[in-house]
């Protein structure tokens, strides 16, 4: 294995797998719901726990890589990812699947945190630029291919295959890494901020759990209140810890810079607004419109396709635009796309109604994502470049996790309101019917209706689901528009120089939509 590009193959393969597992699950959710008799909340956690673990542990994994070795941690991440994928594929119930997805997120955090440092340590000069170009391209391809690949595996094999396919791929990645990737470490004296990591993880987990439980059990529920209070206390502890340690996970002085603070908020809100509602759109396509998994996967690809076209064709053009303007403009397009979906969705709509909004939002994703990390680096001091990059990726993943939780709560609540107000389902069964509709069991609601009321039940399913989907698209659109206007108002900066002074010091930008 003498080719200098084998390390790139090992690193990009791992990156492809961890990113595709964010979106590959979407088109398998209805089959999971039927196969495991999973509730709507369980489906939320299947999606959310992976992104939550990835977000909570990403900065900690970066510190561990500097301390113990990046190659070593990457191999450990691949191993954990493979074993947890096996557990996901063999899961007998939703609880086991959720737990395995959490462990899968731990492995993904180790892999994601080591990608960039390993490439930086392996390549230099022009080869480094080529390596990061290939790495970024495969990242975008993972997001685009996820829903379609998930649909193909679910339709022609089984939903469990979306996890089991990781086993041979991780084996190949481990073998190439052992043979070709050299070890590297950070500066001497690196430490892991364990108290900060624990406080941040507790805050993110408690907040997400509280948001989901509040939608399910009510905001006055004891468990909901305790979770949200625990999140607030953990946040206070995190701030206190980060102020007192010599090597914090996140230097809070960075947040005193208005541009940096706004960019962290933009990273979180962009991810929350652009992608989580697609999870519920996927459920609508399969459980309500009865599209096959493959067709449902193809129906949501216009966003990824538009993003890839802009990223590929507009790369040089974006270099001439200030990062803040590109990011702000991209967020406005993402908001416009979500609002377009909200405006066009009706109970009798078909899948094609989503295409204009998805293309518009995809143009915004392609405009905003490639400059997000570079804008954060521009807003931070050079000596904090690594921390800034880790922070923006952490806020992105956290935004996705919180978006799933918040939008899912709003969606389920809206469905329940429509079912309660309609009167087709007896009051004592309305809660169960709303839960079934939200969780991808719309066919069970229709089948349970008396023969003379099945048309009415079918109409109720369409109306309630679209009403919930319309509401979360509206929230996503407003959120993205607000974030875009905030970025344009606060973030300043000039276009990157056309010819960096040293190729070896050029910091790569992240181009991954999810």
From TrEMBL:
Membrane spanning residue stretches:
43-61, 73-92, 98-118, 130-149, 161-182, 194-212, 224-241, 262-284, 296-314, 326-345, 357-377, 398-415, 469-491
Mostly located where? membrane
Matching InterPro entries: EmrB-like, MFS, MFS_dom, MFS_trans_sf
In terms of Pfam families, this protein maps to: MFS_1
- Mode of membrane association: Multi-pass membrane protein
Instruction: Name the source's superkingdom.
Output: Bacteria
Question: Carries keyword Ribonucleoprotein?
Answer: no
**Localization of this protein:** Cell membrane
Indicate the segments forming the Major facilitator superfamily (MFS) profile domain, all copies. Answer: 7-495
Alphabetically sorted, this entry's keywords are: Antibiotic resistance, Cell membrane, Membrane, Transmembrane, Transmembrane helix, Transport
Name assigned to this protein: MFS transporter
Species of provenance: Streptomyces coffeae
């Amino acid at each position: 294995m003498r080719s200098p590009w084998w390390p790139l193959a090992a690193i990009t393969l791992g990156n492809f797998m961890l990113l595709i597992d964010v979106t590959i699950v979407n088109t398998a959710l209805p089959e999971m719901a039927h196969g495991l008799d999973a509730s709507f909340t369980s489906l939320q956690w299947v999606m959310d726990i992976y992104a939550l673990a990835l977000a909570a542990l990403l900065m900690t994994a970066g510190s561990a890589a500097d301390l113990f070795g990046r190659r070593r941690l990457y191999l450990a991440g691949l191993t954990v990812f493979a074993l947890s994928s096996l557990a996901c594929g063999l899961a007998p119930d939703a609880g086991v699947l959720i737990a395995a997805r959490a462990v899968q997120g731990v492995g993904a955090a180790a892999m994601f945190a080591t990608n960039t440092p390993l490439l930086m340590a392996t390549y230099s000069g022009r080869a480094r630029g080529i390596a990061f170009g290939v790495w970024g391209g495969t990242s975008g391809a993972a997001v685009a291919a996820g829903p379609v690949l998930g649909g193909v595996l679910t339709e022609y094999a089984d939903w469990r295959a979306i996890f089991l396919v990781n086993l041979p791929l991780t084996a190949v990645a481990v073998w190439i890494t052992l043979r070709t990737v050299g070890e590297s470490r950070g500066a001497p004296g690196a430490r892991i901020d364990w108290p900060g990591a624990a406080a941040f993880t507790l805050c993110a987990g408690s907040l997400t759990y509280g948001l989901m439980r509040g939608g399910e059990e009510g905001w006055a529920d004891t468990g909901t209140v305790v979770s949200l209070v625990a999140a607030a206390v953990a946040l206070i502890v995190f701030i206190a810890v980060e102020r007192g340690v010599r090597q914090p996970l996140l230097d809070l002085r960075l947040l005193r810079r208005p541009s940096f603070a706004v960019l962290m908020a933009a990273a979180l809100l962009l991810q929350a607004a652009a992608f989580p509602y697609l999870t519920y759109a996927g459920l609508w396509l399969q459980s309500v419109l009865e599209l096959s998994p493959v067709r449902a996967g193809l129906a949501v690809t216009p966003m990824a396709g538009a993003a890839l076209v802009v990223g590929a064709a507009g790369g040089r053009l974006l270099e001439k635009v200030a990062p803040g303007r590109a990011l702000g403009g991209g967020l406005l397009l993402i908001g416009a796309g979500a609002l377009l979906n909200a405006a066009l969705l009706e109970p009798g709509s078909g899948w094609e109604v989503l295409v204009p909004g998805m293309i518009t939002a995809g143009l915004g994703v392609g405009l905003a994502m490639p400059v997000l990390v570079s804008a954060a680096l521009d807003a931070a001091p050079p000596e904090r470049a690594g921390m800034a990059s880790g922070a923006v990726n952490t806020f992105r993943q956290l935004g996705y996790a919180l978006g799933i939780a918040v939008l899912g709560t709003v969606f389920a609540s809206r469905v329940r309101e429509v079912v309660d107000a309609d009167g087709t389902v007896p009051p004592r069964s309305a809660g169960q019917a709303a839960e079934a509709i939200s969780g991808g069991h719309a066919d069970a609601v229709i089948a349970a209706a008396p023969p003379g009321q099945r048309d009415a039940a079918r109409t109720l399913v369409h109306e309630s689901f679209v009403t919930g989907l319309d509401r979360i698209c509206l929230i996503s659109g407003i959120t993205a528009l607000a974030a875009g206007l905030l970025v344009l108002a606060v973030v300043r900066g000039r276009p990157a120089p056309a010819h960096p002074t040293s190729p070896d010091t050029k910091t790569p930008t992240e181009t991954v939509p999810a």
